[in-house]
Input
Amino acid sequence: MTIAPHVEQELETHLARLRAAQPGITAGEAAPLLPEHLRQPFWERAVGRYLKSELAKVEPGETGPSR
Output
């Protein structure tokens, strides 16, 4: 799912404030401090970024463990 640009901007604004107030804050620590309406987009973005980075590690044609 793609996050709407205005939601992404609002999310980044809140995260910047949290990071400024608490340097080194983790995603797990930041999530409950976000306004309720930004929590789902935050986790959707985090999962999407994680999956993208993991898929980038997979060699073309690799299908996983053999059975």
